[in-house]
Amino acid sequence: MSYSAPVNAKKYLLKYAVDLDSILALPAFENINDELITDIISGAASFAEDILAPINRDGDLTPAYIEGDNVIASPGFKSAYKDFVEAGWLSLGAPEEIGGAGLPAVVSVAVNEMIYASNMAFGLCPMLTSSAVKAIAAHASDDLKSVYLPKMVDGTWSGAMDLTEPQAGSDLGPVRTKAEPNPDGSYAISGQKIYITWGDHDCADNIIHLVLARLPDAPSGSKGISLFLCPKFLVNDDGSLGERNSFKPISLEHKIGIHGSPTCVMEFAGAKGWLVGEANRGLACMFTMMNEARLFVGVQGVAIGERAYQGALAFSHDRVQGRVPNAEAGAPIIGHPDVRRMLLDSKVRLLGARAICMATAAAYDMSCYAEDDDTRKAAHVREALLTPIAKAYGSDTGVDVTSESIQVFGGMGFVEETGAAQHYRDSRIAPIYEGTNGIQAIDLTGRKLRRDGGEGMKALIAELKHTVENAKVHDAAMAESLSGGISYLEEATDVILAANDMDTLSVATNYLNLAGHVISGALLIKAAIRGLEAEDAHASQVMSLARYHSQVVLPESGAHLEFIRAGAATLFDFPEASLGDL
């Protein structure tokens, strides 16, 4: 199934939804302009469409496999990875001081969505490498940085993240992998890690694992976990690769989707590793990696949803079934109102989730590169607040849209030959990994919202209200809908801030979805208005989509608020003993 990158939608949102011009005006990006970004997006679109999309189905039908102690990637992946590295796509968002191109993160989001949409299984490898680079750059010693960062930034070496163990999933406190000091200052890492994405493969020359493990006499629980860098091949003093380290993949998981992404069980047997950051502070170091990964998982949801939507749209133009109202016999099913509803609903929700992901990345850019401290601090709060929303809202939207796309296909979507089923299967991992979406909701309500007494959310709400005022000039009904959604968000925020832990945990997901609906609606309305003011050729279409969002998606916020008001009672009034059978 072919893929056509939605370049116009990306460029429009970059310009009008997230104020790319303000980011490019920062001194850090003085050498980057609109023309360069357009060239990069166009080049990435071509690479995704021509190189990665054609091997997507091959990865699904012919998964990676173990041969001896090594994993062999799916057909075409090794060659595509070589092309990917040579074209410099992996280094786009890395800072120039460590060898990257230094592009804004918001542009990386736009580019990587195309990579994931064309071939999500492939895209997980560079995603993990990029996140590992960030953790090493932030926390590792200068010696480790000098050895590992250059070849990871350019993609010659890839990265992997080793957290999970059979007894330690979302709760990493029970991690048992051990790290024993060696005389030379390194550590011997022993233990088993599971669900290690791209933990081994034959695409890159070396694979650099960031591994959570316990030092001797470390405190129990999550406070006693340290982070270690373990390369598949040890590196000689001259930078060449030496002997293989003593860890290997012992099996691959058989998954419902992303078959082309090897998910490894890794066995460490006294493997040599080096401490990253402070002892017993491994989780803090790892979260540098995980926070970026969470944003990009949200982007994956949007990406796979976009790919599925495109397939459904193409099918709806070809499939003839039933008599289409007000049309001649033989008209395709896109003329059926309910098919049109499914397509439009998918398009709107994808555009809104895409805008949230871009807004999260834009906040990150400002938090790193704004010239004054107050702006950077406020942007950091905004990024932290939006990250769990971007991850959960984006990935849930991906699942919803891929499911709806199968519905457009009808029975042809339920069989594998059309490719629609693969998108649904691939999408389903995104709400689970990098912290389940329930955990994202808990993070939002339990940490991000409460740690500043709700000030970060209140600042965001104040900005959303400006959009209401601007919208009144163009569409009073749309402005009223957004105003109502903002009022729901304000009240829900007050309820959460005053709630006890049980009530907060019970309604956390509803709060996150409410916030996602309102923020995405505001971003679409803002983009539509700014585009109209600039007389952009696409502005009227975006306004139509924003109007649909205000009529269909934003009103869902009210139902979430009703649940939030009720608290835990709605969940726990029904007896646990009767959950099986009355």
What ranges have pLDDT less than 50 throughout 5 or more consecutive residues?
Answer: none
Report strand %.
5-15%
Looking at the structure, what is the overall shape?
A: globular
User: Helical amount among residues, as a percent range?
Assistant: 55-70%
What is the correct CATH architecture of the domain at 437-572? Up-down Bundle
Remind me, CATH topology of the domain at 437-572? Four Helix Bundle (Hemerythrin (Met), subunit A)
Q: Largest sheet at a glance?
A: 7 strands, mixed
DSSP summary, beta strand count: 11
Mean pLDDT equals 96
What is the top-level CATH class of the domain at 437-572? Mainly Alpha
User: For the terminal residues, how far apart are their CA atoms?
Assistant: 46 Å
Can you characterise this structure?
The chain has helices at 7-16, 20-24, 34-52, 56-61, 77-86, 105-118, 120-139, 142-153, 282-318, 337-369, 373-409, 411-414, 420-427, 437-448, 455-472, 476-498, 501-533, 539-553, 556-566, 569-572, and strands at 65-67, 70-72, 157-162, 178-181, 187-197, 206-213, 226-231, 233-235, 241-244, 247-252, 263-276. It is α+β, with helices and mostly antiparallel strands. Among the domains are: 7-139, Butyryl-Coa Dehydrogenase, subunit A, domain 1, CATH 1.10.540.10; 159-280, Butyryl-CoA Dehydrogenase, subunit A, domain 2 (Beta Barrel), CATH 2.40.110; 437-572, Up-down Bundle (Four Helix Bundle (Hemerythrin (Met), subunit A)). The strands form 3 sheets. Strands 3, 4, 5, 6, 7, 10 and 11 form a 7-stranded mixed beta sheet that branches. The chain has a two-stranded antiparallel ribbon with strand order 1-2. Strands 8-9 form a two-stranded antiparallel ribbon. A hairpin with a 5-residue loop joins β4 (178-181) and β5 (187-197). α11 packs antiparallel against α13 (420-427), α15 (455-472) packs parallel to α17 and α16 (476-498) crosses α18. It is globular and about 75 Å long. It starts with 6 loop residues before the first helix and ends in a 10-residue tail after the last helix.
